[in-house]
Specification:
Blueprint lengths: L1 H19 L17 H4 L1 E8 L2 E2 L6 E6 L4 E6 L7 E11 L5 E7 L4 E2 L4 E6 L4 E6 L5 E7 L6
Antiparallel strand pairs: 1-2, 1-3, 1-10, 3-4, 4-5, 5-6, 6-7, 6-8, 8-9, 9-10
Amino acid sequence: MKLTRIFTVALIAMALLSTSCNRGATPAVIVPGMEVTYSTIDGSWELIAWNGKALDEGTYCYIDFNRTEQRFEMWSNFGSMYADDRSGTFTIEKNEYGEFILSGIYDYGVGDWNDTYRVTMYTPGREMRWESTTTDDTYTYARIDAIPEL
């Protein structure tokens, strides 16, 4: 009983010390059991990191998911100074390993997305990470209130 109490006090102290050192910082944390659903992904998102690195200044990618129609619209300027606007449909499925898999199809005969992605939600729906199912690429998106005027 005494050992359990000491262990509990030590854990609380470590938690308090680690949070006091990071005042002002809000680290992304995995929310155990937070499902990636049409509801939790609904809304506007900004790509903030690609393979763990921030995007180059002036480069952007925004995506807006509509849960009721299972549609998306995406704006990016990779390799161009002008926005590339694409739209289409998306699906979310849970695979046999319990992973949430996101895939999409572009409108106008452009075809499927380049890949499918394992998606993990962080910091109660404020951030999500996409991991390619075929490459080592990772993408980190942050929820935003609205897509900016482009």
